[in-house]
């Protein structure tokens, strides 16, 4: 573990996104840093997730794209951050299947532009400030590909992305490592398992299931529902990210997971059972009966699992939420926030990610 840093100003890209907003809430609650939320406000951005801090004396907001080098230069000049937490990304696998170009532009090109803006800024700092600077790139376990029934991903697992989203994040990870090796950029990198919790845009499995089950709509489950994911509450993730930023060793990567593997069908059924307890239906009507198996996603990875021993051993981090406690809190939160999710105009729960092209050997 390197010497612990205490950044006075942190630039968070994608700070109006699901994980980015959780990071901003954590930083403003648990540190004394000025926090700059740099976000383009795309369809999945949610300013309401940080609205409680809009007038906070240490909160700043910049509406701009991570691919805009001039906007980045201005943000660095105006706010003089001594740390960057890079979360701006297109993140939904199904959307990447339907439209991979946006993922390449934001996740790959955007990361390269941010790295160059950061490199220019770093060169302007004096030696003491440069030594205390960090660039933290936040990534996903999907870059590692798909596991069989045994084993887990660790920091040395070879990359094997299988979706346009995963490939774009793998590319951005490699760029960050290259800027460290080539230019001496003081980077740290983290790869996390599937996040869930408050304010998640309802195209993802857990919020989508909650909202559809509340309305007694069919609950789509891909394939047989036997795909396995390792679930991590977003507030636990935010605390881990702060530790990686302030205690992580430059050039190192850290896997973040809570050892909460569940099959997708188990997750859906657990949500149904919680809702049956919290919002009882007519006698004899179970929400589990709404489960509807649908055609699987193209290239759907079978299993993800994180080996988080490095971050536990080196940085002393552990998740606080079990899957049962975190899911119960999440379901309760969505029940209390119906005014927010009922007014989302950019997504109505339709199926995404069905685009596929079969090309024969003859090219026809």
Describe the structure.
With 364 residues, the protein is an alpha/beta fold. The protein has helices at 18-30, 69-79, 93-98, 100-123, 127-131, 164-183, 205-214, 234-247, 264-278, 309-315, 323-336, 338-341; strands at residues 9-13, 34-39, 59-63, 83-86, 134-140, 187-192, 194-196, 219-222, 228-233, 253-256, 261-263, 291-294. A seven-stranded parallel beta sheet has the order 3-2-1-4-5-6-10, sandwiched between helices. Strands 7-9-11 form a three-stranded mixed beta sheet. α6 (164-183) links the parallel β5 (134-140) and β6 (187-192). α2 (69-79) crosses α4 (100-123) and α4 packs parallel to α6 (164-183). 45% of the residues are buried.
In short:
This protein is an alpha/beta fold and 364 residues long. Helices cover 39% and strands 16% of the residues. Helix 2 crosses helix 4 (100-123), helix 7 (205-214) packs parallel to helix 9 and helix 9 (264-278) packs across helix 11 (323-336).
């Amino acid at each position: 573990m390197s010497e612990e840093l205490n950044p006075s100003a942190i630039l968070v890209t994608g700070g109006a996104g699901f994980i980015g907003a959780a990071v901003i809430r954590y930083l403003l609650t648990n540190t004394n840093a000025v926090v700059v939320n740099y976000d383009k406000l795309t369809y999945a951005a949610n300013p309401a997730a940080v609205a409680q801090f809009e007038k906070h004396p240490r909160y700043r907001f910049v509406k701009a794209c991570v691919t805009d080098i001039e906007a980045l230069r201005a943000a660095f000049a105006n706010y003089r951050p001594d740390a960057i937490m890079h979360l701006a990304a297109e993140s939904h696998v199904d959307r990447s299947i339907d439209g991979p170009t946006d993922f390449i532009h934001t996740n790959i090109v955007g990361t390269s532009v941010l790295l160059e803006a950061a490199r220019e800024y770093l060169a302007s700092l004096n030696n003491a400030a440069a030594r205390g600077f960090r660039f933290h790139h936040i990534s996903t376990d999907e870059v590692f590909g798909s596991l069989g029934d045994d084993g887990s991903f660790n920091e040395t697992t070879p990359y094997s992305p299988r979706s346009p989203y995963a490939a774009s994040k793998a590319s951005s990870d490699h760029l960050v490592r290259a800027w460290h090796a080539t230019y001496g950029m003081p980077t740290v990198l983290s790869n996390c398992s599937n996040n869930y919790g408050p304010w998640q845009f309802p195209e993802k499995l857990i919020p989508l299931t909650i909202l559809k089950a509340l309305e007694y709509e069919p609950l789509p489950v891909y394939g047989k529902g036997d795909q396995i994911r390792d679930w991590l509450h977003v507030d636990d993730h935010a605390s881990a990210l702060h530790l990686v930023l302030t205690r992580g060793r430059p050039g190192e990567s850290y896997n973040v997971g809570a050892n909460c593997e569940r099959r997708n069908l188990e997750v859906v059924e657990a949500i149904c059972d919680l809702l049956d307890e919290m919002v009882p239906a007519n006698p004899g009507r179970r929400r589990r009966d709404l489960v509807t198996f649908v055609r699987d996603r193209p290239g759907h990875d079978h299993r993800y699992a994180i080996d988080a021993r490095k971050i536990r051993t080196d940085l002393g981090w552990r998740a606080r939420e079990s899957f049962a406690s975190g899911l119960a809190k999440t379901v309760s939160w969505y029940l209390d926030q119906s005014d927010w999710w009922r007014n989302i105009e950019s997504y109505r729960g339709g199926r995404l990610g069905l685009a596929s092209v079969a090309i024969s050997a003859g090219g026809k």
